[in-house]
Design a protein that fits this description.
- The structure holds two protein chains of two kinds.
- Chain A is of the alpha+beta class.
- Chain A has 13 helices and 14 strands.
- Chain A has a five-stranded antiparallel beta sheet.
- Helices cover about 35% and strands about 15% of the residues of chain B.
- Chain B has a five-stranded mixed beta sheet, with helices on both faces.
- Chain B contains five helices and five strands; from the N terminus they run ββαβββαααα.
- The chains are: A alpha+beta, B alpha+beta.
Chain lengths: ~325, ~160
């Protein structure tokens, strides 16, 4: 087995001239050297049925590829997280590229739609503007040219910036598998760090945003030490529905403060039925703080993150109330 | 075991066919297979933006694109920015404003800047900084880059 580092040096200094040696190395090495990525097979099916068949036939050794901004990093030789034999490019499947605002006022976003198409879409801007809070802050401009909401969800990182926002919007995920399709409320998708309830032989097809009706407002905010391009120390995705000056619905979902994004029941209880007031919002924020079970790491201590949950939830709820027309 | 795939693309306006393994990133294909070494390799995980190229009108980090995904795509790299020996106004502004020192990040910055100015010919400093947030420069401290982008925007509007 060839060590990776000397090989990379060779490639940088002698590219082009030593094509024969390059081929020699990449043929004789198995999972090391040669390319920066592990060996993979590539398939680009054009229908959901074909994609599901490839996933099912590969016994858990295939991974769907949408924007690749997480998956391709995880496929690098030095990254132990993913060992896939086959990468299934899902971007040629029509259902996964749809952006459809329907008559009932709901919005379907295909799992392979990149973020820049989402935040430039007139229906999103008009009817679901809070999605843009997440879509426009994941990575930088070149990442948003490729990354998808579906990928952010399926990657299942506790810090995924769009997941709390999807949960706040009551999004339902449509998943296709060998036995047909099923629908999962998005809060039930993540089960642990980088683990989801979507099986390895299943494919996320689309995300459905139901019509929230009048008096709805949502917001996602996160805290990071700089203005962009970082992973959330803590994040809060919230939504409220207001009728006659009272909260008729409220949802708070937190990122980066538990093994998975958490929907805080206590916050909903603190809001629903109460008049729109700073007191109700403060109680919901405190419930979010109490529900968080963060770890301490280089980004922040557990105590600091709990404090952030209260502050972010309060601020996000205030913005959501404003957007709902309640203030 | 994987074999090489035949990929047909248009690069800087010219049809380009190449062979690659599915595991080779577009960055590796551009540099090692096609020989377009203007696009630089930095972090290779999408953070630094040195490998930024424009695919079908949208900038992406080419280290996070598989070469095989480029089938049928139209790609613009730093080699396609200048018109023959005449530098693009963005390149001139970077040179005249000393918006580069070691130069590794510069191709990515210029490709990203061109995409910005095509979309928004008169961006604010705030818009420039956010658009270029995915391009890291460890030499200049960014101020000269932002000023060069503003200068290029001015020149391009006058032209």
């Amino acid at each position: 087995m060839l060590p990776t580092i000397p090989y990379v040096r060779l490639r940088l200094h002698l590219n082009g001239i030593i094509d024969i040696k390059y081929d020699f190395f990449s043929v004789r090495t198995d999972n090391q050297g040669g390319s920066l990525l592990k060996w993979i097979d590539y398939q680009a099916p054009e229908s959901v049925a074909d994609a599901v068949k490839i996933l099912a036939d590969s016994n858990g050794n295939a991974r769907p590829l949408a924007g690749g901004t997480d998956l391709i990093v995880q496929l690098r030789v030095k990254d132990p997280r993913v060992n896939a034999e086959t990468v299934v490019d899902i971007k040629k499947i029509p259902e996964l590229n749809q952006m459809d605002y329907d008559k009932s006022g709901g919005l379907t976003i295909g799992a392979a739609v990149p973020l820049h198409l989402i935040y430039n879409n007139p229906d999103v801007i008009k009817h679901f503007p809070a999605i843009i809070d997440s879509a426009s802050l994941i990575g930088g401009t070149p990442i948003q040219g490729r990354a998808t909401l579906g990928g952010n969800l399926c990657n299942g990182a506790p810090s995924g910036d769009s997941i709390p926002n999807l949960v706040a919007h009551n999004v339902v995920a449509t998943v296709a598998g060998p036995n047909g399709t099923r629908e999962i409320p998005v809060e039930d998708v993540c089960t642990g760090p980088r683990q989801t309830s979507i099986d390895s032989n299943e494919l996320l097809v689309s995300l459905y945003f139901p019509n929230p009706g009048d008096g709805f407002g949502a917001n996602y905010i996160r805290f990071i030490p700089r203005n962009e391009m970082d992973i959330a120390v803590a994040g809060a995705g919230v939504s409220v529905k207001i009728s006659d000056g009272k909260f008729v619905d409220g949802r708070v979902c937190l990122a980066s403060v538990a093994p998975k994004p958490i929907l805080v029941e206590g916050s909903s209880k603190a809001l629903i039925g109460q008049p729109v007031s700073d007191e109700a919002i403060q109680k919901a924020a405190e419930a979010a703080r109490d529900a968080a079970s963060p770890i301490s790491d280089m980004r922040g201590t557990a105590e600091y993150r709990k404090h952030l949950c209260e502050v972010l939830t309060r601020r996000a709820l205030n913005t959501a109330v404003e957007r709902a027309g309640g203030k | 075991m994987t074999t090489k795939t035949h990929v047909q693309t248009t690069i800087n306006g010219e049809p380009v066919d190449f062979l690659c393994e599915p595991r080779q990133s577009l960055l590796e294909c551009l540099r090692d297979v096609i020989g377009l070494t203007g696009t630089k390799e930095g972090c290779n995980d999408g953070n630094c933006g040195a490998c930024t190229v424009n695919i079908d009108g949208r900038i992406v980090t080419s280290c996070l694109v598989l070469g095989v995904e480029a089938q049928g795509a139209s790609i613009e790299t730093i080699e396609g920015i200048a018109d023959g020996t005449n530098l693009h106004p963005i390149q001139l502004a970077f040179l005249e404003g000393a918006a580069l020192q070691c130069g590794i990040c510069t191709p990515g910055f210029i490709v990203a800047t061109k995409a910005l100015l095509e979309k928004n010919p008169d961006p604010t400093e705030h818009e420039i900084r956010f658009w270029l947030a995915n391009n890291l420069c460890r030499c200049t401290g960014y101020d000269k880059i932002v000023r060069a982008v503003q200068e290029a925007a001015k020149k391009m509007q006058e032209a």
